[in-house]
Automatic annotation (TrEMBL):
Protein name: Transcription regulator PadR N-terminal domain-containing protein
InterPro entries in the cross-refs: Metal_resp_DNA-bind_regulator, Tscrpt_reg_PadR_N, WH-like_DNA-bd_sf, WH_DNA-bd_sf
One Pfam family cited in the UniProt record for this chain: PadR
Annotated Transcription regulator PadR N-terminal domain residues: 17-89
Length: 113
């Protein structure tokens, strides 16, 4: 795989995890499954759990344990106020970045100022 694609994906996993959790509380395996529908992202369980651990340490996630019908207790993750703020900031930055890249492309094509 091309190095730049790998680096870009790594940077997007945190953003995507926060996006998934913005829909509501979820446990790790559900988050992994939600992200796996994005073929372009190609995430592993270990990557997602590492991001969840980091976001928890940063104060962006609240974690609670609940019984599982078929195994050990599940850890449910939800966004804290700080997590929602981080997602809002990431969303704004993403939108600005996409707009800037689009503008750059327009300029390169002779369509912009």
């Amino acid at each position: 795989m091309r190095t730049w694609v790998t680096q870009l994906r790594k940077g997007l996993v945190e953003f995507c995890v926060l996006k998934v959790l913005s829909r509501g509380e979820s446990y790790g395996y559900q988050i992994v499954q939600s992200l796996r529908v994005l073929e372009e992202l190609t995430v592993t369980e270990s990557t997602v759990y590492a991001v969840l651990t980091r976001l928890g340490k940063d104060g962006c996630l609240q974690v609670r344990a609940a019984p599982s019908p078929d195994g050990p207790p599940r850890r449910y993750f939800s966004l804290t106020a700080l997590g929602r703020r981080r997602l809002t900031e990431m969303n704004a930055y993403w939108n600005d970045l996409v707009a800037a890249i689009d503008l750059l492309g327009d300029r390169e094509m002779g369509n912009g100022k």
